[in-house]
Design brief:
By secondary structure, the protein is of the alpha+beta class. It folds into 5 domains: about 1-195, tricorn interacting facor f3 domain (Immunoglobulin-like, Sandwich), CATH 2.60.40.1730; about 200-295, Zincin-like, CATH 3.30.2010; about 315-450, Orthogonal Bundle (Neutral Protease, domain 2), CATH 1.10.390; about 460-565, Immunoglobulin-like (Sandwich); about 765-898, Alpha Horseshoe (Zincin-like fold), CATH 1.25.50.10. It is about 40% helix and about 20% strand. The protein contains 27 helices and 31 strands. The strands form 9 sheets. An 8-stranded mixed β-sheet has the order 6-5-9-3-2-12-15-14, with no helix packed on it. The radius of gyration is 28 Å and the shape is globular. The protein starts with 9 loop residues before the first strand and ends with a helix.
Length: about 900
């Protein structure tokens, strides 16, 4: 299935409108796994806004061409080739009918039309539709679709496609048909069909305007009992979009279908969303609190795409963040509102903290490497490689900055104008920016740089207090410091950075904020400074005492703030800052500073010790009952090993692991009684509840258990974990107990209990694929030891009967978990992890290049590591570069090695 064509660089500057447009599409499918016949009838016309072309060039891959007709007559001037179909001497306007054949059963790429578990599914974003039929497979060609599906009724009793069902009925020879119509123009990447043995949870709801809508969640029959939460999430999403943005569901029905073989999380095909089972199926016995939250967020994300992505779509793939960044922002706001409404800032902050943790650990790392690119990239070789953290997560932060600048009401005005101008169109990031600017009467020309400049900006802060004049000056300076070459070449000038700040007095209370030149102090205790120059000063007046600045509140821009807080100042902010995000941030800065110093000592072989003040700061948070359990769990979680290694001049995973484990053990032993008390206080007896409050209690309790597993004598932790495992009535507690047992076993305690629990876990859940994914992942990410390296465990698990490399979820649960989420073991000095990585990338490349490319990115930052590790990584990259054939993986490894 590999694509061995010479890679061509696609550049945004070369965009040209299509020479032809397609107004209507009528598709007919005769569905047979090894030989599906597709008849595609299109109304085609020349584009009056494009240069006249001598021929019509359609994209097509892995297709067998049967024949072409124009206006009902056979057309001989159609020439099929490896990447499409060329039609010479076509009229200016005509009906084109193409017949072709594809082989869904052999399609292991899971792009286009494929078979999974005996059922048919599609995935067309970004360029999968060309594997189904010949087409102008680009997002700026929008058409209305009518789809007729024909198949064996016994084998495929359910036939689904986009839009509304027009008719269905029987055919001869035990076959049947269904005809669907999507009345809204859409690009081909939003096409979908599903056929198979499925059942649905159904619900009817009324939209805000009183229209009845049919909602369906389709799954395999044995999974029907795990669909209620997905349905509830869909209903919440529909209501939220009506209330927050005035956007109604525009079709008579909305369908979600779950499939276990899927490259992505989910896909927003118009009215027929196809989901990875991981983001649909949940009940208390099989899904964790994190799973429940992720399902709600992903269901929301795909539903919100109905307007931000479908009704208004991308002109070209360089504009991908137009839909993805905007919709990630919308799903983040939805999740925050579900947790805390519009006013509970503490509850909303837990969601904000979780999102920023992901951004810093993954997107900041992307910005620092060879794949660094702007939110709106300038070029690509393989578009599948640009479904990145930058496009999604940084893109979301860019959208959030509009709301920070204009407020909720101003942002809503901009969204309303965006839909009014562009409904039914394929547009650009600039069109979105212009709508927000015009609706709020602002010039946002400078803000465009957020879309075109790569790299993570750094903002250094200097402050000065004049007691006699009661003036406090804050000087901000922006730049990119050590950005990689891929980022530096895009940087043209200073950004417009909304920089939120508060000032805290000696009693821990916020001080009034009055900028020089203002008549009176603001009622708000947080001020958003519009920072637009390379260096800019802001002076607050009538400041009665020297304050402590609370910088970048609520993480108001995706930047790194450099300010030389003392350890005492950070502890003070951790105790008093009224901004929940910055309270958490102070603790993270304190922990990061200490961990980085310890990692340096560990790398040099110097004995490690932790200052008592750090332990005291953690103790205050642990025992502060005024803080929510969810917030305390986040505040007491140390920065990840991957994030810490990123902060080193030369990444040394072993030293980081030694430092982090030392701190965990120190906190465990010093606060043993406090951890035990918290563990007991935050049990959640009774029936499981998937509420944010209950999840917060479980999270804090299970964090306490994980610390207790680090004790010098973990016997009590093993007893507690074993009892929790045996008594658990939910997957959150059962998985947490198993994880604690595995880590205690790594510290030479409870290894018998850990193995017994592992064996029991598999026996209980061997018929639940998503739970067995957890079983693989827990083993791949366990701490391991010199006597029992995790690489040996992973290699053995690859021979397990339940492991299947062709299933993306299973590959991610074992291989990706080890390579990306267990840095100390993956980066073993003997290079065994790198050799394993190379073998798996090569194997996956032959099956599913998209999944292989994701794994390939594990080594893209190889130049940042210690010399010994660099050599092992370079050798592994060179081995992969010499053997892989897909554009997807070649682009990654060649950029890494360049």
């Amino acid at each position: 299935m590999a694509d061995t064509a010479t890679p061509n660089v696609i550049r945004r500057a070369d965009y040209a409108p299509p020479a032809f447009l397609i107004d209507t599409v009528a598709l007919e499918f005769d569905l047979v796994p090894e030989r599906t016949i597709v008849r595609n009838t299109m109304r085609v016309r020349r584009n009056p806004d494009a240069s006249r072309a001598a021929h019509l060039e359609l994209m097509g891959e892995q297709l067998e061409f049967v024949g072409a007709e124009i206006d009902g007559q056979p057309f001989a001037n159609a020439h099929a080739h490896e990447h499409g179909l060329l039609l010479d001497n076509v009229p200016d306007s005509f009906e084109l009918t193409l017949t072709s054949i594809c082989n869904p059963a052999a399609n292991t790429t899971l792009s286009g039309l494929y078979v999974s578990g005996g059922n048919f599914f599609t995935q067309c974003e970004a360029e999968g539709f060309r594997r189904i039929t010949y087409f102008l497979d680009r997002p700026d060609v929008m058409a209305t679709f009518t789809v007729t599906l024909r198949a064996s009724r016994a084998d495929y009793p359910v036939l689904l496609s986009n839009g509304n069902l027009l008719e269905e009925g029987d055919l001869p020879d035990g076959r049947h048909f269904a005809r669907w119509e999507d009345p809204f123009r859409k690009p081909s990447y939003l096409f979908a069909l599903v056929a198979g043995k499925l059942v649905a949870l159904e619900e009817r709801v009324k939209s805000g305007s009183g229209k009845e809508k049919l909602l369906q969640v389709w799954v395999e029959p044995h999974d029907l009992d795990k669909t209620r939460h997905a349905m509830d999430s869909l209903i919440h999403s529909i209501r939220w979009d009506e209330e927050r943005f005035g956007l109604e569901l525009d079709l008579d029905r909305f369908m979600i279908v779950a499939v276990s073989d899927f490259n992505m999380g989910a896909m927003e095909n118009k009215g027929l969303n196809i989901f990875n089972t991981k983001y649909v199926l949940a009940n208390p016995e099989t899904a964790t609190d994190t799973d429940f939250a992720n399902i709600e967020a992903v269901v929301g994300h795909e539903y919100f795409h109905n307007w931000t992505g479908n009704r208004v779509t991308c002109r070209d793939w360089f504009q991908l963040s137009l839909k993805e960044g905007l919709t990630v922002f919308r799903d983040q706001e939805f999740s925050a509102d579900m947790a805390g409404g519009a006013t509970d800032e503490a509850a909303r902050a837990t969601k904000r903290i979780e999102d920023v943790r992901v951004l810093r650990q993954m997107q900041f790392a992307e910005d620092a490497g060879p794949m660094a690119h702007p939110v709106r990239p300038e070029s690509y070789v393989e578009i599948n490689n640009f479904y990145t953290m930058t496009v999604y997560e940084k893109g979301s932060e860019v959208v959030r900055m509009y709301q920070t600048l204009f407020g909720r009401d101003g942002f809503r005005k901009g969204m309303d104008l965006y839909f009014k101008r562009h409904d039914g169109q394929a547009v650009t990031c600039d069109d979105f920016r212009h709508a927000l600017a015009d609706a709020n009467g602002r010039d946002l020309a400078q803000f465009e740089r957020w879309y075109s400049q790569a790299g993570t900006p750094r903002v250094s802060v200097r402050t000065q207090y004049d007691a006699a004049q009661r003036r406090y000056s804050v000087t901000l300076r922006q730049g990119y410091a050590d950005a990689p070459p891929a980022a530096r070449e895009t940087q043209k000038g200073p950004l417009l950075i909304p920089f939120a700040i508060g000032l805290i007095g000696k009693d821990g209370a916020d001080l009034p904020l009055k900028l020089e030149g203002e008549a009176k102090a603001s009622a708000a205790t947080t001020r958003v400074l519009e920072f637009t120059q390379t260096e800019q000063s802001f002076t607050f007046v009538d400041v009665a005492q020297e304050p402590l600045p609370s910088l970048l509140r609520n993480f108001s821009a995706p930047v790194i703030v450099e300010y030389d807080y003392s350890a005492d100042q950070l502890a003070f902010l951790l105790a008093h800052d009224s901004d929940p995000f910055n309270r958490w941030e102070a603790g993270q800065r304190l922990a990061t500073r200490e961990l980085m110093a310890l990692a340096g000592r560990a790398a040099s072989g110097v004995p490690l010790q932790l200052d008592d003040s750090v332990v005291a700061a953690f103790a205050r948070v642990l025992t502060d009952e005024t803080l929510s359990p969810a917030f305390r769990e986040l505040a007491l979680m140390l920065p990840s090993e991957a994030y810490l290694a990123e902060q080193m001049a030369e990444s040394n995973p072993a030293a980081v692991h030694a430092a982090r484990q030392f701190v965990r053990k120190r906190l465990a032993n010093a606060l043993e009684n406090e951890w035990l008390k918290v563990y007991e206080q935050h049990r959640t007896p009774g029936a499981y509840e998937a509420t944010p409050e209950a999840a917060g209690h479980r999270a804090l309790k299970n964090l306490a258990l994980s610390y207790l597993a680090e004790l010098d004598d973990p016997a009590e932790a093993v007893r507690l974990a074993s009892a929790q495992y045996d008594a658990a009535n939910n997957m959150t507690d059962r998985a947490a107990a198993l994880s604690a047992l595995l880590n205690a076993a790594a510290a030479n305690g409870g290894s018998v209990q850990a193995q017994q629990a592992l064996d029991d876990f598999y026996r209980r859940f061997e018929k639940e694929p998503l739970v067995i994914d957890k079983w693989f992942a827990l083993q791949a990410t366990q701490r391991g030891s010199a006597q029992r390296p995790v690489i040996d465990i992973v290699r053995k698990l690859m021979t397990h009967p339940a492991f299947n490399l062709k299933n993306p979820n299973r590959a991610r649960s074992l291989i990706f978990s080890f390579c990306a989420a267990n840095p100390a073991q993956f980066h073993a000095e003997d290079g065994s992890g790198y050799a394993f990585w190379a073998d798996q990338v090569i194997a996956l490349d032959a099956i599913n290049p998209q999944v292989a490319a994701r794994l390939a990115r594990s080594l893209e930052l190889w130049r940042r590591f210690t010399p010994a590790l660099r050599e092992g990584m370079r050798a592994a990259l060179e081995k992969v570069a010499s053997q892989v054939k897909s554009r997807d993986v070649r682009e990654i490894v060649e950029k890494a090695l360049a």
